[in-house]
Specification:
Blueprint (H helix, E strand, L loop, with lengths): L6 E4 L2 E4 L4 E7 L14 H14 L3 E5 L12 H17 L6 E4 L3 H7 L7 E4 L8 H7 L4 E4 L16 H19 L4 E4 L8 H9 L10 E4 L5 H7 L7 H13 L4 E4 L2 H17 L2
Length: about 280
């Protein structure tokens, strides 16, 4: 994090969260849980990314391997084949905002660096790939650390009954390890929906502010997820209103970044929350 500011440098770009920032989701997949986020060609990805930037996105997150529950991961070769042309096209498009690459494979990060000199690594596995920290540190990349109960090993020290303590202790332990490995900028993601019960997801949301470790940024990724669908008996297509409600709670709890499918609506939520915040100062 930049000294004295709430910002992270990604190559020649700066991600400021002095006001909460929006990360727009673009999936180069055929099976992500929210179908409208799936985009097949590099040209369409660039158009979608440009639209998201126009709507207020501060980061574009590109994923080529669905991590929804029950989804079989694509091969390493297929993930690279999907990602590299898209990242090259986005680099050529000279977007004014940084990119994020959603992958759990260190080899994929290395391959992406051949076409894009800097990006955020969004790893939902919680550094399950033992080579990931070294690759991220060597290339001075910011790293999103996700608490993923599906990926946690049996020897993990996080075995508290309370999910809030569990996640916070995990963040403390892993952030220390990442910093020791040379990773400078760590963003914390509680991993809503990743191996957690419905009640655990909501408990983490309402206690989000308690999960911050040192000065690390907090990311909330609740957009159109099953934690909304299950309560309201709706599909992902119908979950925008519920998403906005949960974004409001996340912002009240100190979220620095919202990872979203619907950029304009998330930016409007932030704008209204900032207006309310100004009345309480």
């Amino acid at each position: 994090m930049e000294e004295g500011t709430k910002s992270i440098r990604i190559g020649d770009k700066l991600l400021s969260v002095a006001t909460p920032a929006v990360m727009g989701i673009v999936n180069v997949t055929d099976n992500s849980f929210y179908a409208p986020s799936r985009i097949g060609s590099a040209e369409l990805v660039v158009m979608r990314a440009q639209q998201m930037v126009a709507e207020g996105a501060a980061v574009i997150d590109i994923g080529a391997c669905s991590t929804r529950p029950g989804a079989e991961p694509v091969s390493e070769e297929e993930e690279k084949a999907r990602l590299l042309p898209v990242l090259e096209a986005l680099s050529d498009a000279l977007l004014p905002v940084p990119l994020s690459v959603d992958t759990f494979r260190a080899s994929v990060v290395e391959a992406c660096l051949s076409v894009c000199e800097a990006f955020i690594v969004n790893d939902v596995s919680g550094c399950a790939d033992e080579k990931m920290a070294a690759v991220v540190a060597k290339n001075h990349l910011p790293y999103i650390l996700t608490h993923n109960s599906r990926e946690k090993k049996e020897d993990c020290s996080c075995k508290e009954a309370d999910i809030v303590n569990d996640v916070r202790n995990y963040f403390c332990e892993m952030a220390n390890k990442l910093h020791a490995a040379g990773v400078k900028d760590v963003i914390l993601d509680p991993g809503f929906g990743f191996g957690k019960t419905l009640d655990e997801n909501y408990r983490l949301l309402v206690h989000l502010c308690e999960l911050r470790v040192e000065n690390a940024l907090l990311l909330a990724g609740v957009s159109r997820k099953s934690m909304i669908q299950r309560v309201l008996s709706l599909s992902a297509d119908e979950a925008l209103n519920g998403t906005t409600v949960l974004h409001t709670i996340a912002l009240q709890q100190g979220a620095d970044i919202l990872r979203v499918h619907d950029v304009r609506e998330a930016c409007e939520t932030i704008q209204l929350m900032q207006q309310i915040k100004r009345q309480t100062i």
